[in-house]
Amino acid sequence: MIQTIYHVCGHNTTLNMGLSSRQNRIKRAEDMGKSICPPCEIEEMRLFSIRNNLPFLTGSEKQIKWALKIRHIKLTGKYKDFWDKSIAECKFWIDNRNKFKQPLT
Ligand SMILES: [Zn+2]
Fold it and tell me: Which domain holds residue 29?
């Protein structure tokens, strides 16, 4: 079953929630709606990178999307001063994603 998710940023996305019950679909859609939509999330991480003079990440498109998220979490977290902000290789951020792990938002 396709469920529409109304995000706090004002955008809607849809998600195929399979055969889960109506109640579960609504609950999950509400929870997901508390966050901004994926394109806004990427935009926010790009702006964060620009504001903090972070280098453009190097890697495949898929790696960049993933590494942007990991870097954003690491550089806004409790251990943000540990990380070398000049590292541009996606592989570094992906390989170190579990170091000083913090709960994902
Ligand atoms: Zn959005």
Answer: 2-33
Instruction: Give SS3 for 9.
Output: coil
Report whether 3 contacts 29 (CB < 8 A): yes
65 within some domain: yes
Residue 27 lies in a domain: yes
Which DSSP string do the residues of 32-92 spell out, in sequence order?
Answer: HHTS--HHHHHHHHHHHHHHTTPPPPBS-HHHHHHHHHHHHHHHHSTTGGGS-TT--BHHH
**pLDDT, tens digit, for every residue of 21-79?**
999 999 999 999 999 999 999 899 989 999 999 999 999 999 999 999 999 999 999 89
Distance (angstroms) between ligand 1 centre and the Cα of 82 equals 31
Q: Ligand 1: distance of its center to the CA of 99 in Å?
A: 29
Pair 45, 26 in one domain: no
Judged against a pLDDT cut of 80, whether residue 105 lies above it is answered with no
